[in-house]
Structure formats: structure tokens, C-alpha cells
Amino acid sequence: MLTRPSRRPGVRVRHWDGFRSRAGFTTAELLVAATVGMMITGSALALCHVGNRAVAALIGSQAAWQEARAAATLW
């Protein structure tokens, strides 16, 4: 049970769970939510990067295939 000093000396407030914003979140909850959000965003950006590299590799292999095919038809 956490207590904090009251505005009146000698009086304690029981079950104090931290400062809450107008939306009802404590500072710790807000920091955890921000950290998780940043981790999810970073993961999504990493997946986008991997996807872009995969698409570039497919395009490169397709170009190589077309060059080989053109060379075979000329031969």
C-alpha cells in the first residue's frame, strides 16, 4: 500500500497509485505504452525494409533472366 503526504500535516492518503493525467493514465503506464509503440513501429519498419530488399532482388533476378533469355534467342 503506497501512501503520500496529504496537504494537511499528519494525514495520509491510502491506496495512492501515482499521478494520473486527465485521460486516467499514470506516468509509468504512458511510458510503457510509448515504449511498446516504438518497438512495434521499429518492427514494422524493419519488415518494410526486408520486403523492399526482397522485391529488389526479384526485379534483379527477373532482369538477369530476361538478359539470359535474349542472349539464348540470339545464339
What does this structure look like?
- This protein is mainly α.
- The protein has one domain (4-74).
- It contains one helix and two strands.
- The chain has one helix spanning 27-74, and strands spanning 4-5, 12-13.
- It has a two-stranded antiparallel sheet.
- The longest helix is centred in the C-terminal third of the chain and has 48 residues, at 27-74.
- The N and C termini lie far apart (85 Å).
Output the keywords.
single chain, 75 residues, 1 helix, rod-shaped
Structural class: mainly alpha
Helix content: 55-70%
Beta-strand portion reads: 5-15%
DSSP summary, beta strand count? 2
Any idea what the radius of gyration is? 30 Å
Biggest sheet: strands side by side, in what order?
1-2
Biggest sheet architecture: 2 strands, antiparallel
Number of self-contained structural domains: 1
Rounded to the nearest angstrom, the distance between the terminal CA atoms is 85 Å
Discrete helix count: 1
Rounded mean pLDDT is 80
User: What gross morphology would you assign?
Assistant: rod-shaped
Give unreliable regions as ranges. Answer: none
What's the helix-strand series?
Answer: EEH
Quick overview:
The chain is 64% helix and 5% strand. It is mostly helical. Strands 1-2 form a two-stranded antiparallel ribbon.
